[in-house]
Amino acid sequence: MLKLMTSAAALMLSVDAMAADCPAILDSTQRKLNSTEMVNLCESFKGKTLLVVNTASQCGFTSQFSGLEALYQMYKADNFAVVGFPSNDFNQDRGDESRSAKVCYLDYGVTFPMLSRSAVKGTNANPVFKEIIKASGVEPKWNFYKYLITPDGKVVATFPSSVAPQSETLLGMIEQHIR
């Protein structure tokens, strides 16, 4: 009986320690794009440098999916991930999630994590974006806003839509923060 109680106490401490180590930005579970599969962000991205991007499938910047995928491939071995959040906040992600998924996965060959469509600004914003906006003071003003987040959950840089994924400034910031 004592052994069972000790094991239960150790498990509770382990869960508490994991929760304490999870940055607020990652403290949620999200659904994958056009899927029923759920992703615990803390488990999936803890210890990684992230480039979080709000995306849209019918935007003048949609071609940035190619550059974002190239970044992901270039740095994923260095504890780096791109995470896409499709949003129709700017009326550029029309149709259902299957259309968004087709653009991402089939048209652009995206392999980095894409999460379900959600709001990225305002009171209905996804919890990840609420935390990003709180930490950075920068709400996305259009699609393909990029937020560089360190493994400890700090937003260290924001990049507007006009900054291409292969820009020297963005690449330099990623290289400064990958481990």
From TrEMBL:
Which Gene Ontology molecular function entries are recorded, alphabetically?
peroxidase activity
- Name its GO BP terms in alphabetical order: cellular response to oxidative stress
Q: Provide the alphabetized UniProt keywords.
A: Oxidoreductase, Peroxidase, Signal
KW Signal (keyword) present: yes
Write out the catalytic residues in the record.
Answer: C59
The signal peptide, as residue positions, is: 1-19
The protein's matches in Pfam families, at most eight in alphabetical order, are given as: GSHPx
Keyword Transferase part of the UniProt annotation: no
Coiled-coil parts of chain: none
Source organism superkingdom: Bacteria
The residue ranges of the Thioredoxin domain are 11-179
InterPro entries per UniProt: Glutathione_peroxidase, GPX_AS, Thioredoxin-like_sf, Thioredoxin_domain
- Protein family (similarity comment): Belongs to the glutathione peroxidase family.
Provide the protein name.
Answer: Glutathione peroxidase
| Native source species | Enterovibrio coralii
